[in-house]
Amino acid sequence: MFNDFHYLYQAIVVTLFVATIALLALERLERHVVAAIAIAVLLLTQAISLDDFLHFVDWDVIGLILCMSVYSVILEVSGFGKWIAYRAVARVKNPLLLLYVVILLSGVVSLVLENTITVFVFAPIAFEIASILGVSAKEVLIGIALTAGMAGSATMVGDPPAIIVAGHYNLAFTDFFVYKSRPSMFFIVTIPMLIATALYVLQNYIHREKRDVNTARMDEGSVDKWFVLEASLFLFLKIALLSLRKELGIPLTLSAIVALAGLYITRVTVHRDIECIKKSLKEGLDYKLPLFLVAIFLLSNSLKKHGVTDSIANLMMERMGENILALGVAIFIISTVLSAFIENIPVTLTLLPIVDSIAVKIGVDPLILAWGTLSGLTAGGGYTYIGSGANVVAMHILDNKNIKTGFADFIKTALSFNIANTVMVIVLYTSIWLR
């Protein structure tokens, strides 16, 4: 009887997962409606319990993203994006090079800042640069999301999967640069990112009409520099709190709340600026993004709960024997495919125990395969907008600007980046760790 129900629930969650992806791809319903349907079906069929609902969702992450959504509005109102754009334009005159620098810069920032936060920070910059150059803000922001998502695994503090791997294997910060005298994740990630970003810019802009940077539009005097300074200082405070949150024992959301509260108090007491607060709360507190993220967490963890991801991974592993090259490539492929459609935290937690058991069986350091897991998660997350938190946030911001981007449209826009990125990542991983 247990097995009957076990397989029944496997069929339910797999069918629901596929149906959700199909509905998103067909674009007949808005994302938050699809998310609500998925959540309702999971609960009504008892594929997840109310206790699962509470524990499967990382509410701290949801809270952080909500706070950053509010803060991103403040950054936009302050002129933060305009100021950064003007600084960049003043130093880089070539349009293609300017786009490359701005998009790549988000990846650099994401080395130390969680990728969803990086997208929020860079969103106003993306819109301003797009306006100055007369190009599509959609492609600029998607590029920013791709590099931010890619760079997250280059260090142990950039993204949750990297943090999970670091904790699981008790790694030091420097192990992500060099481990046992070999280059590790930093180089496996950043070298492809440099090249893939260049190809992305060329794919989306090289065939378009050449246009010089429109410096005539620029009026840096229109930017409230004090407001930009205050917004930047409290943003850096939030980053500092996030960096030290383990030592301080504080949740993610609290870091953002402290920054928001500090800025709000400053705007009210010093500048008597109530309108900024009203605007940021009105535009930033949108239920659609949190609802969608809750559904992704629940779907991902329901697949894990009912053994679907374990079954897929184990089946592939059983066919590889003890060949370290074949096993490493298989781990990479599994991670890449799963992370394109499933939130990367449950994929990481599912695959690491499998990596450990394989490593014991064939007598190798589990990090050899764990780097493959992390590399695949990083490379695969950019293929769809549900594979990476950075992509989800970018789509949310574009929706708020009434810039509609479909499921297939995202895949097409990001394709050159992802193909180049995946090929280079697997070449570097196999040549460094599987030889």
UniProtKB/TrEMBL annotation:
Residues 21-371 form the Citrate transporter-like domain. Pfam families: CitMHS. Its main location: membrane. The keyword Electron transport does not apply. InterPro entries: Arsenical_pump_ArsB, Cit_transptr-like_dom, Diverse_Ion_Transporter. It comes from the Archaea. It is a multi-pass membrane protein. The chain crosses the membrane at residues 6-26, 33-50, 62-84, 96-113, 119-137, 144-164, 184-202, 223-242, 248-266, 323-342, 377-398, 410-434. It is found in: Cell membrane. Keywords: Cell membrane, Membrane, Transmembrane, Transmembrane helix, Transport. GO terms for cellular component: plasma membrane. One of its GO terms (molecular function) is arsenite transmembrane transporter activity. Belongs to the CitM (TC 2.A.11) transporter family. This is Citrate transporter. It comes from Ignisphaera aggregans.
